[in-house]
Structure formats: structure tokens, C-alpha cells
Amino acid sequence: MKKNLYTIAVLLIGFIVGLTACSPDDYSLGGSISKDELIFSVKQDAQDPNTVYLEALNKGASVAWVTPQGRSLRAKDTLRIAFPGDYEFTYGVMTDAGYVKADPYILKITTTNLNYVQDEMWKLLTGGVGNEKVWVPDTGKYGMKQGFYSCFDPTSTYKDMVAEANTPYNWYARDKTWWEPGNADVGITDDDLNSTMIFSLKGKAGLTVHRFTDGVEAVLNGVFDMNTTAHTISAVDVDFLHGAWTNGKAVDFRNGFQVLVLTENQLMIGNYRDEALSGEGKCVYSWNFVSKEWADSYVPEPEAPEPTEPTLPDGWKEDVSENETTITSTTIQWTLSTKSPVNWASQSGKLLNTWNSPADYPEWLGTPNPATYSDFAMTLDSKTLKATFTIPGGSAVETNYTLDEKGIYTFDVEIPAVTIVNWLTFRLSSTHTLRILQIIKDATGAVSDMWVGIPNPDNPDKEYIAYRMNPKAIGLGGGETAEEKVMKTLATQAWMLDMDGKVSYAHPTEGTFVGPTACYGWGGNWAPGKGTHYTTGLISDGKTENMNYGTMKFTKDGKVTVNQRRFKYEADGEGGVPYELTTQIPAMTTNARVTSEEVVTLQGTYTVDLSNNKIRMSVPMLHPYSATNMCNDWGDLEIIHISSTSLLLTVYRKAEVESVAPWVYVFTPEKIN
């Protein structure tokens, strides 16, 4: 027998649905339950009808509600709805057969409680009670996001959103950002960008959408609700604005939205791509908006005009022309890169595509196979100004050349075209030239790559076809590898941590690094001073450890000795009983303190791998011991810079501590310290 159960009390309106007379059983995830067995309760508070209580009455069930304020997985939940209206609630549970849901229940609310829309988020979104606020898609030209759409990992929430000090409006999901394309790159149309949303608190939580389709405007009206605790938002009778290209790829565009970012002039809301509908994996579609007031008043900072030709660094001519004094060779053999042999570049020499490996190349061009061009070489002797081009198949072309002050090589003869990938070849220009576009140096200051180019025949005044070349000095007793040079530099002295910040290293993209350490990765860095952070010796409550951490000594034949000062720590546990800290970060543990210290000598081996910009040690690198548990591997090191006076090496903080992040440690020779 089926029955509906209703309970009504004075000033209490409740709804309990029981589509069976049986007692609730235990339906845990993976169990079996039918729609007829779903039992739930939706009640209004007796004193405040705008407060609604949800309760799942199927014992042990894995619950999934759909409410006016978004989805909820709580067996019991409380919603606070400010305005009158008809609100829909859907109750369901997860079973081994999938999601089983009851018919939607409509709750009529007749009262108003403006206390529920006084939170700062309501004011930022709407302008406050009695006001409305217009939001427009971010075109990428308002100094905030790169465009209307961003793609984040499906686990991303508002808690993951960060913006760096030098780009305070460029919010993104730290370690969870998958793609942030320009509007044109993903199919955002003028119709999308001309549409607007108006959030209002004029008598109701109103949402008005002005949507354009094929240039024709439609005005759509509905209501919305927001849960400021859960940072969720939903709409009734109208979709939130989104790129039309995602239609049919999400379950809907009204429910299940997160408020990822909300400030006075910036709004980012996200819903989920559906795997079944899209044929792709789940992700967060983030829709990025700015307030109309900001859009109307924004004046972009004028961009500096792009240089009309490449700008090469000081000393570039010596860099690409080895000399007998320092290298005992004047001949360099240049070969095409096996990682990214070709690209296009602007008139200033800036690369137009981010292709760093064969897998990065697009389908329309194809994937370069280094075996196709591995026998090609361009050998230049800067003393005799003779060039030899070795062509795949065994032939060679010898010629004279010149190199002018602009970085333009001019050869006496043409050479045969060398296939790189499909139809794209290495060749000289119609006037037998190659122009140097960029010179790239490794951490030791040696040239590792040179981009040369010819004018793009399709746009000769504005673009180059660019070729990436790697050098090797040959002849006259040369032949020491770049790795051997690094090992020789490392072995010249013992190294100590630069605890007093004596080194100042200007990184090309991340600002100036100052010792002892800096966290970076957003086009800038943060450098905590000595003893102010667990990465630099802080223990607890302003207490520091002995910050003379010892020395690190390398040999030219691949051996390393680390004299590491180690510490033991303890903290007060339950009932004030001390316990030893073994896996914790001391500064992240209340009342941590040092109990003993010692200097331990660790002997191991190391290798230098410049192709991956790495030093790998079999023992941990010298480091502040307060940071020992920060990293999974203190022997896997990225090279930032190596010279006779400074050494900068990066380790990665593990996710369990705070989040994965690069930290560079700065070393100086022991004699300088």
C-alpha cells in the first residue's frame, strides 16, 4: 500500500514523503532501493518560514539533493531563502543501479527575510537590497582574465582560487588550471560577448539575461538563489550566461554552479562538463565576467609597440663565435633541435606558438621526427668565415659567409631544402640569408640554443619561419661537454646556504631571487627572510634553530659530500605529554622546540643532466632542517643558475604540506660566507 504523509503544526509547514508503508531500511552506497521507497522531509521553521530544513529518512543512504541553492550531499541540511516564491527540491540516493530520485517537490514560501541577503557576497553580486548590478563577459581586454572561458580540474572549488600580487585580477585554480584560451581559440562569439546578466535584489532575487543569437537580442527573466557558505548559485526559468559552444555538453546551465570568485568588479562562476553528453572527461567550465561599470570605465595601459626587428643581448656575437682563448675552437656545429625544431616568429623574434616537444605540434602540421633531419648540420668557422652544410643522404655544400651587426648570416650559395616535417623544410631565404632571432643560454651562461629564421613568404614583413639550432664546439682540442663544464664549476669550492641574502639574482621571468630561498612560479616570487618561515629555519612562535647548516662539496668525477646540521624536535601532545616530531613541519606544529642537534656527513654521487636542466643527487641537498619534511625528494634538483659565485637550485614542495610549489635555494661559496 502507498501513502503520502503530511505534518502540519502551528506556524510550521512540513512535507514528508513516504511512498511506501514499510519502515526505512539501511541503503548504503551500493545497496538497492527503488523510487517508491524514497522517504524524505522538507520543512519550514516555525518561527522563520524562510529557513528550510531538509532531511533524508532512508537510513544509511548516500544522499544527493538538488535544491534552489545547488546540490547537497548532506542527510540533513538547512537552507535560508530570503524571498517568497515557489522553490523546487529533488531528493535522491545513489545505489548500485545509479542515481534514484523522487519526483520534484515544490515548496511555496510567502514571506521575506532580508537578513539572508546581507552577506557581503550578496552585496558584491547585486549592489545590495533594492539595487541591481550588470555583469558582462570578460572579453580579455579589461585587465582581468584572458577571456570569457577557463577550464579547471573537476575537483576545483573556490578554495583553490588564487591571484598573484603582480596580476591581482588573474584568478586561477592553483595546480588545477587546465586551459585558459583566448575567446577566438575556443569559439566564443560576438553574440556571447555582447550578452549581459543583471542580478537584482529589487523585491526578489531577480536574474535578467540579455542574450544575443545571430545578432538578435532576447530578454529572459527568472530568479536566482545563492548559498554564501557553500559558494553555490542556481537559477530558475533562465540560464546563466555561457559560451553557446558548450550547449549540450552540460546537464544544464541553471543548477550546480559554483561561485569561484566574487569581488566588487569580477565574477567567475563554474559548472561541470558532463562526460556522457560531451564525450569528454569531466571538468569545470568557468565563466568569467566583469561588472559593466568596470567595463565601461576601464582604460587599458598603453602597450609598448613591438620592436620591428629582433633585439639580441650584449656580447651575442662572441656567444655564437667560439674563440681560441676560452674554448680553443673557432668552429661550431649547429644541428636542428630534436625537441622543437621549427616555429613561426613575429618581427621582433618572439615565437608565435608554444611548441616545446614533438607532441605539441598540431595535426595540420604533423609531428616532427628527429630521424628525418638527424644527419643535417650547419658548421661555421668564425675565424675563416667558411660554412659547411651537411645534407641528409651524404652530400655537403661548402661556402663562404658573413655575419653582420644585426645578426644576419649571408651565404654565397643556395643549399638544398632539408625536410623537417611534411611540407615544412629548413632552407635559406631567397637572398641566401638566416637571421638570428633569439639566443638562449643554459644555467651556466653557455649558449644552449639559437633561433634563426627566414622571412615567412606569406607575410615577409611581419613574420619569420624560425629554426631552433643546438651548438657543439669542435676542432682544435675542444670537446669538453657542457655537463663537464658544470661539474668543474661546482667542484671549485664548498657551498653554503646564503642565509644572509648576499646573492641577488635577476631571473628573466620570476623577478629577483634573494637568499636563502624564494617561492616562485607566477611571474614573481616571495622570499621569506632568515628564520621567518619553516623554509628558512623557523621552529615555532618566533623560535629558530641554529642556522649554520653546514657545507656541500662536489667533485669533478661525480661525488658529493654534504655536512648537514640535523635537529630533533618535540611538541606537547595530549595532556601536555611531549612527543617527538618525525614527519611534521615544526613551525606548523603548536609549541615545537629543538631537543638536540648534530652535524652528519652524507657521502653520495651526483649527475648533471642539462637536457632536462637537472642535478640529481643520491643524498639530500644541504637545506634548512626545519624544511626537511617539506619535499619528497631533496636530491631531485632543477638548475636555475650556476656560476663561480652563486648556485641556485629548485626543489618542489609536496602537496601534503600546503600545495605543490617550486622553492629555489640560494648558495654561495664557503669562502664568501
From TrEMBL:
<protein>
    <submittedName>
        <fullName>Uncharacterized protein</fullName>
    </submittedName>
</protein>
